[in-house]
Amino acid sequence: MKLILFTFLFFTYLVLGTPLVNNVLAHSFPKKPIRIVTAESGGSSDFSARLIAQWLTTELAQQVIVDNRGASGGIIAAQIVARSQPDGYNLLFYGSNIWLMPFLRDNLPFDPIKDFLPISLTNMSPNVLVIHPAISVYTVKELIALAKSKPSELNYASGGTGSSNHLAAEMFKSMAGVNIVRVAFKGAGPAISDLLSGQLHLAFFTSPSVSHHIKSGKLRALAVTSARPSSLFPSLPTIMSSGLPQYEMTSMYGLLAPAGLSTTLLKILNQEVVRGIKSSKIKELLFSAGSEAVGSNPEEFQTAIKSEMQRLGKIIKNNGIRGE
C-alpha cells in the first residue's frame, strides 16, 4: 500500500507538480498517532501540552500523546525531536529554556534555530515580584532603594540556572544596579517554603506558584515582569512602569517541529493549534493555571524566539551565567 501511494505521489508530482501532492498529503495526514515531547509531568509545559494534545486528538481524529522528557533541562526532549523525521508525527512543546540553552551550555546536540521549525507561540506567563511581608516596602522603587542601602544583605529565591525566575532576578539586579544574593533551589516548592517562613526575602515566581499566597497575605506582590499589565494580576503595575523602562521578562511556550516539515503540514498544524488555543475552553483553562493564551503564526513565533535570544542572551553573557 505504501509503495502504491509513493508511486502515485511521484508520478503526480512529475505531471502536475507540488500543489496536488500537497493536497494529497493534507488529506492523508495524520495516518498514525502524533507524539508531543515536553517537560516533566505536572509543570506548566506539561499542562499546556496536554490541552493541545486533547484538542488535536478530537480535531484530527487521531490520537495525540504526550511524552514527558524533562531531564537535562530540556536537552533530551529537544534532541529526540530534532533527530526525528520531519513528517509531523514528532513535535516539541517547551518554553524559553530550549532556545536560551546555547547561552548556558556548550556542545549542545541541537541548534534551536536550524533544527526546529516554529509552529505556534501558544501561551505566555509573566513572573510576579513577591516579597515576605516582614519587609517594609510596598513598591518597586522602595525595594530598589532598600537594596541599594543594604548591598548583599537581601536575597532572592531561584529555581534552576537559566530558569525564568532566575533570569528575571538577574535582569532586575542589572538594570536597577543592586546586589541581591541568589539562593538556588532545584524546584519552586522548597524555595517558596523558605520564602514563606521568612528565611528568604523576595522572588520572581510564576503566577500559579504564588497567587494563593498573595491572596492569603503570606506574600506581598509588588509588580509583574511583563511589558504590559497582566489580566492575571490587574491591580499590579509592571516593573517596566515602576522605574526600569527596559525591563521585560515573560515565559513563552510554544510548539515546534523538526526542520524540514513541509509547508502543507506546517499550515495544518498551525491552524488547528491556533484554533484550539483561541477556543474559550482552552483560554479559560490556561488563564486559571496562570497563563495567557496567544496563538501565533510560525513567522511571529520565530521572530519572538530570535528577539528573546538576543535580549536575554546579553543578560546571560554579561552576568556570566552558566548551566548546571
Brief overview:
The protein is α/β, with parallel strands linked by helices and 324 residues long.
Describe the structure.
The chain has 324 residues and is of the alpha/beta class. It has two domains: 2-124 and 252-318, D-Maltodextrin-Binding Protein, domain 2 (3-Layer(aba) Sandwich), CATH 3.40.190.150; 126-242, D-Maltodextrin-Binding Protein, domain 2, CATH 3.40.190. The chain is 45% helix and 19% strand. The chain has helices spanning 2-16, 18-28, 44-59, 75-82, 97-104, 140-149, 164-176, 188-197, 207-216, 263-277, 280-288, 298-318; strands at 34-38, 64-68, 90-95, 116-131, 155-158, 181-184, 202-206, 220-224, 250-258, 292-293. Strands 1, 2, 3, 4, 5, 6, 7, 8, 9 and 10 form a ten-stranded mixed sheet that branches. Helix 7 (164-176) links the parallel strand 5 (155-158) and strand 6 (181-184). Helix 3 crosses helix 10.
Draw up the topology in text.
Blueprint: H1 2-16, H2 18-28, E1 34-38, H3 44-59, E2 64-68, H4 75-82, E3 90-95, H5 97-104, E4 116-131, H6 140-149, E5 155-158, H7 164-176, E6 181-184, H8 188-197, E7 202-206, H9 207-216, E8 220-224, E9 250-258, H10 263-277, H11 280-288, E10 292-293, H12 298-318
Parallel strand pairs: 1-2, 1-3, 5-6, 5-7
Antiparallel strand pairs: 3-9, 4-7, 4-8, 4-9, 4-10
What profile does the largest beta sheet have? 10 strands, mixed
Q: What is the CATH top level name of the largest domain?
A: Alpha Beta
For this structure, the quaternary state is: single chain
CATH architecture of the largest domain: 3-Layer(aba) Sandwich
Question: What portion of residues is helical?
Answer: 40-55%
Number of continuous helical runs: 12
N/C terminus separation = 49 Å
